[in-house]
Amino acid sequence: xxxxxxxxxxxxxxxxxxxxxxxxxxxxxxxxxxxxxxxxxxxxxxxxxxxxxxxxxxxxxxxxxxxxxxxxxxxxxxxxxxxxxxxxxxxxxxxxxxxxxxxxxxxxxxxxxxxxxxxxxxxxxxxxxxxxxxxxxxxxxxxxxxxxxxxxxxxxxxxxxxxxxxxxxxxxxxxxxxxxxxxxxxxxxxxxxxxxxxxxxxxxxxxxxxxxxxxxxxxxxxxxxxxxxxxxxxxxxxxxxxxxxxxxxxxxxxxxxxxxxxxxxxxxxxxxxxxxxxxxxxxxxxxxxxxxxxxxxxxxxxxxxxxxxxxxxxxxxxxxxxxxxxxxxxxxxxxxxxxxxxxxxxxxxxxxxxxxxxxxxxxxxxxxxxxxxxxxxxxxxxxxxxxxxxxxxxxxxxxxxxxxxxxxxxxxxxxxxxxxxxxxx
Amino acid sequence: xxxxxxxxxxxxxxxxxxxxxxxxxxxxxxxxxxxxxxxxxxxxxxxxxxxxxxxxxxxxxxxxxxxxxxxxxxxxxxxxxxxxxxxxxxxxxxxxxxxxxxxxxxxxxxxxxxxxxxxxxxxxxxxxxxxxxxxxxxxxxxxxxxxxxxxxxxxxxxxxxxxxxxxxxxxxxxxxxxxxxxxxxxxxxxxxxxxxxxxxxxxxxxxxxxxxxxxxxxxxxxxxxxxxxxxxxxxxxxxxxxxxxxxxxxxxxxxxxxxxxxxxxxxxxxxxxxxxxxxxxxxxxxxxxxxxxxxxxxxxxxxxxxxxxxxxxxxxxxxxxxxxxxxxxxxxxxxxxxxxxxxxxxxxxxxxxxxxxxxxxxxxxxxxxxxxxxxxxxxxxxxxxxxxxxxxxxxxxxxxxxxxxxxxxxxxxxxxxxxxxxxxxxxxxxxxxxxxxxxxxxxxxxxxxxxxxxxxxxxxx
Lengths: 425, 461
Prior knowledge:
Chain A is mainly α. Chain A has 18 helices and 3 strands. Chain B folds into 2 domains: about 5-155, no CATH class; about 225-460, MetI-like (MetI-like fold).
């Protein structure tokens, strides 16, 4: 007896141990998944938060009338075409009287971003009395200086591994010690479109493009999907044709997104000759992709409306169509709009099909209409990631942060609508 | 008449017609003192008139926008003088593309006068035809609605007509899903057939070398390029296998823990967090793989004294695996939850521990559903684009080494098509051949997986 008892006891200990281990494995799985999420988000935030500030250098700018307006005409066109680059170079050289070599002078002048010239022109257009005056100004630094300023450890790297040579590094450190260099909010990032210079590139153009594209997507997909969902759930007879439609919808929901891009390229661009890179085409492609999501959401929320509502309406003499449009659809609207917002947030993050229809063009202006060339937020992120310049890495991460915050916003609205308006029957 | 003028007239007349028809019906009802009134509510007469105004206009407008470019091309081709046609080698489509490239505001010096004239003619056609067309469709709509206005009488049942038109509209909206599928299949097939006219089908499917870049210039020696897709398929397979070996264990273990061990509160907290992983855009994963994971793995390998490619398959595949975790976990979670409780209770009553119940009873019972979930995830991994475009390589290496750089079907489609607008070289057409392969593989996987899951559900429902 005792022998058997010991045997069972031993195996029980073993079994309980394996029970514990199994539970631990499950927990490890969950912890892995959650920690992946945390790692992704933190690595992006660490990289991206730097892009929200940019470096400014303090210079005493002398608005020399000999350069700006030698003939004293005071005309706008003359001032606008003046060589402001020379003014900036002069004012930066004032700090370093020992620099005489031409090449070194050019190197020094590249400390300041080329957009600073426009800044000076704007300033002088506002107040012409500035001509022949001196003024202390904070000017936007170039991307290289910005990168060094944000990553000071780079100064200790050997000369060929950091972006600037020893002389430039000496000048940079002089600015630093004189406190003539500072961080300030990066306004360009929120107001500009794309640019070849990282310090001047911004997300605004892509934001407008995304907005226009999603607008087209919403206008097309919402009515069509709600109509299709209402038909299939409420009015359709059960036959082979409706079964076939259902199989198609379920399958479209799982077709790789890049295939939709090929469809857009072959039909919307090559057959219908719609404009390349335009939000109208992008919106149409994304609408086809979002349709299944909204149809499925529509059907689910129609199904949640209890049959008593329908019976009451029909009992009072409403037709089937009236029952659906006057009673069932309005009642299921919260669910449908939640599904629509989720579909829209998927469309906002989608980029592969848009690459196919040419929305990867380099565009320096924000689009004015749905027929202009445009790019969207995720494609802008892809474009910046593919650019070699060091300053774009931070911009890319910052772009990701902007995209993610819009997604969080949209999903929060969806959850809010669900909790606030959805009826529990 | 420009588009916006047309639109404003269209919208205001639509409003006016509906209002007028409703009012007419109301007046009709008011004028009858005895006897039957109108059989439907007055608003239905308004709606009926509105539909007969909108539908003819919108449908002709759609057909017009599709066929207008062809009509204009045809008219311009009729105008091409013979000597110009001869100087282009008798190819009118070549002249057309030249004309379309002419910018009338800023004509390139040295352009032939005949070409400029044709470009001006084309521009003129574009504007004159559209204003003529807008007037034509507006009058068409007005004719349609004036007929319906006349129809308002006690014999006409407007509600039935409106509802039958509306039902037809709903049916049309539902068929858009079918039209999309047909559109996908045909657009892919037509271009793929043109590709297979130049490259034999079996050379594509079983060829061992892929270098489409050589086919750019026609006078090059190896102008046909090499279009053997095996290295691409193997690369796709490698990355998919890596992704699955990350996502299946993590996703399945998470699903088991969530459905069998976690308390309700913990479950309500953890499930949305896992679903965030599915909501993160793929371009974000791609950025993460390329900027963080790739260099990290490379540094790690360097510190161990061997070198790996910076665009290694393992970086792209691993991150793709993270992306797929929520698909597997939430689908398996549903599947495990739908295993009836009687099976659990029976096993526990026999004295099995919880883990033994899971391993020996629940998982075998849920296996078909889990396989379906995994197949769906595999199809997702094969079709995933942005992660591999950003983090995997372009060179088609035939290798099974996960630390090497490989390429995938989707990467090749993107690199072949982005920035290229010519549609007669095998290089661009190859993208469509790859696309149709991708479409059919994912289609078969999806249909099979959906069938398994559906069958499984029926078994326990």
